[in-house]
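Hey, can you fold this one?
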Amino acid sequence: MSDPLLDVRNLSVRFRTRDGLVHALDHVSFAIRRRDALALVGESGSGKSVSAFAVMGILGSAAQITADRIAFDGVDLTSGTPRALREIRGRRVAMVFQNARSALNPIRTIGRQLTDFIRRHHGTTGAAARRAAIDALAQVRIPDPERRFDAYPFEISGGMCQRVMIAIALSCEPELLIADEPTTGLDVTTQAAIMDLIDTLASERGMATLLITHDLGLARDHCSRIAVMHAGHIVEEGPTDALFSAPAHPYTAGLLAATPTEVSSLASLCPIPGGLPDLRGTLPPCRFAARCARKTAACETESLPVVSVDPGHTVSCHHPALTAADRVSV
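Sure. Predicted structure:
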């Protein structure tokens, strides 16, 4: 098997606040191979976006980051030279942020924002930069791209703003696209169009994708693998079909039980009790323990094991459902 394109091992992030340290991530590990699509899923506040921001190096001075390895195509992103990291971030690894209208500069035209990015990473200027920007808008299926080039973000719809963000991210033909909640605030039809666009462009360009979402249905439809996050931990990772048909971690099973389906009624949904723990101060080894029906004393005192339940399918739990029959009945 080929080496991962992105390899993250034991990533931990703490934030300094007035109320003390917030332990946002704790020994998070995941890998993405070329042409692969991995989803990070979990509740809001579980650490999905923080993981992506750490990879992109945009967490700011309040963050304390430690990791055994954060590498892209074998290059260490924690110790490379500024020039080498600029060559990777933005050019070989690009990111689409949630709420595109807020991410775009409201007082600069769409074309200006695109050409600024193209000039920075390609050195293209003048008419050539303008032509490249218009071509990028056309590639993300923005109608009449020559006219939209001179529009401001407030003059176009939210779905169109998201297409502009994708055009900016893909204008340098990255090898990895990080899409952070790319369909937030969009209607269902536009959501489907945006995700189909990302899938199509990824397939055409041979691009890997890291999708950050709280929507399990979106992850199932667009990613071959899923990593489930809870309170700064990755609690389960495996092939999409395996996680949906036979979840091994009680949190994964709870998320699936709480997810509406075409045949669901309100009475059939089973919400997960409790909420995310306070990430300040001392935390138990298992951050899901207070919400878990399987909890024992070991969950609050002993380090979490990483158990392989099937090839390519791991779970971090003292009491996982290890057999297929157990997992289906969770």
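The chain has a mean pLDDT of 89. Let me know if you want another pass with a different chain boundary.
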